Amino acid sequence: MPIELFNDGNHKCIKFDDLTKEGEIPANQFMVVHDKRGLLLDPGGNKLFSQLSAEISVFAPPQRLDYLVLSHQDPDVGAGLNGWLLMTDAKIVISALWTRFIPNFCTSSFAENRIIAVPDEGLDLELSGAGFKLVPAHFLHSPGNFHLYDVTSKILFTGDLGASISPPEENITNVDQFEEHIQNMSGFHSRYIPHSEACRRWAAAARKLDIEMIVPQHGARMSGTECVNAFIDWVDGLTCALG
Question: Which residues pair with 93 in a beta bridge?
């Protein structure tokens, strides 16, 4: 069931969190619609394409997608590109470091002249007048990694940073008591985030943004200024795999 994270009538942020099957890596996919144009973030692999394309049609036809934003190079982020490139005229937005990976996700000719390579320092995007920022998040966990900040909704989509695994019986989708949520995140971050210096750099950049919600690619979102700030502080102080 799609979840509306934000809706002011003209600008919508939608989360899809129930498309992966049991035994597969559970992941969230996201769509932003502004003035009837769309952006799809981390749309996932081939198995999700048919169902996700049907789900997003409720909010905007796939043909109205302008961007396919890939936060990093993992297959659960963008291995289903072929279908989206055939169905839409959307541009692929990905770190310049990973543009060479695109032919592993789709037919090379489909992506020709359709790639926006994001430089290490980040990039601003515009969707029918709405502003977005590609915020550097290198080594969290990918060496070429970006988070998407939606200026209108004040949501920061953080990819694998903030990923959580909660007990199945709890089915946590939204966190407003941060301390209780740490146990659901700590295992992933201690293993997959290589060094605390990357965390400190990200925390310094995040504190410059006006964030009302943190939404990772896996697990629950964190809502409200208090919870968001607690998460940033937690990331700032993380002890990671290599120090």
Answer: 69, 116
Instruction: Look up residue 211 and give its amino acid.
Output: I
The pLDDT value given to residue 189: 87
Q: Look up the CATH number of domain 3-236.
A: 3.60.15.10
Alpha-carbon span 57 to 55, nearest angstrom: 5
Task: With 0.90 as the threshold, say if the pTM is over it.
Answer: yes
Structure tokens at 238: 């993380």
pLDDT tens, position by position, 111-143: 899 999 999 999 999 999 999 999 999 999 999
Using CA atoms, how far apart are residues 158 and 221, in angstroms rounded to an integer?
A: 10
In the chain, at which residue ranges do the beta strands (DSSP E only) sit? 3-7, 11-16, 29-34, 37-41, 65-69, 91-95, 115-118, 123-127, 130-136, 146-150, 155-157, 174-175, 213-215, 221-223
**pLDDT at 172 (0 to 100):** 67
Is residue 138 reached through a cis peptide bond, with omega within 30 degrees of 0 on the bond before it? Answer: no
Cα–Cα distance, 104 to 79 (Å, whole number): 8
- Dist. CA 98–CA 47, nearest whole Å: 22
Least confident stretch, 116-120, 200-204, 230-234, 239-243: 239-243
